[in-house]
Structures are given as C-alpha cells and as structure tokens.
Amino acid sequence: MRRYRLCGPGAVGGLESEGKAMTPFEKCPVCGGELVSRKVEKLLRGGGNIVSLQVDAEVCRHCGERLYAEEVVKSFEEIRTKLQKREFAHFRAVGQAFTVDEDWPNKAIQPTA
C-alpha cells in the first residue's frame, strides 16, 4: 500500500493536491518512526454534520501520526462534500450529537456550534 499524509482539506502527501505529485512515505514524515498498519476511527465533518467510520491507516508507533492511501483520502473528500450538500443516501444514523449550552458553568468549555 502506498502511504500518503493527510495534512488537512485538499492536502495530501504534504503537498496541496492541485496537480502536484504525491509522495509515499516509508517512515513517519513527522518523527521518522516506524509505521504499522491499523484500523482506526476517523471523524469527518461537513456542513455541520459528522460521519464516524473505521478505515485502514498506517500509524506511527512513536508519535501516532496517521497516513492514508490516496484512494482513502479521495473518499474522505467525497464524504465531506456529501455531508455539506446534505446528501445522506449512503449514510445511516447511529445516534445523536450534542454540544454544551453557552451557559455551561465552566467557561473553559464552549459550544462547538
């Protein structure tokens, strides 16, 4: 499996995905640690909606950095787009999401939306 670093929306392999080549990693790009294959939980957000899923990733044994295959990263973007457009055909509800009220007693904790 070729491994790519997910650096944020639209970024793969440490480079923006605008036609630039993506670089696979043999060692962790953050700390140089050993990578191991694992199934991990990933939360994806879009348009105020969240999807929780399990996905194969390469995880650094030292720092915990996660790397995903190129096709997985493309699927992440597709899922985010569907969430933003409220296209829920391939999703199923698994519960409810909550945030705290603005008057929560501990002011260090704030609502997310």
In short:
With 113 residues, this protein is an alpha+beta fold. 13% of the residues lie in helices and 32% in strands.
Give a verbal description of the structure.
This protein has a 6-stranded antiparallel beta sheet with strand order 3-2-1-6-5-4, covered by helices on one side. It is an alpha+beta fold. Mean pLDDT is 83; it is low at 7-21. It is 13% helix and 32% strand. The chain is built from 1 helix and 6 strands; from the N terminus they run ββββββα. The chain is flat and about 45 Å long. The protein has one helix at 70-84; strands at 4-8, 11-12, 15-16, 35-46, 49-60, 66-68.
Rg estimate, integer Å: 17 Å
For the sheet with most strands, the description reads: 6 strands, antiparallel
Low-confidence stretches: 7-21
Distance between the termini: 38 Å
What is the number of beta strands?
6
Query: How much is the average pLDDT?
Result: 83
Fraction of helical residues: 10-25%
Strand content: 25-35%
| Class of secondary structure makeup | alpha+beta
How would you write the strand order of the largest sheet?
3-2-1-6-5-4
Q: What overall geometry do the principal axes of the alpha carbons give?
A: flat
Count every helix, treating DSSP H or I runs of 4 or more residues as helices. Answer: 1
Series of secondary-structure elements, N-terminal to C-terminal: EEEEEEH
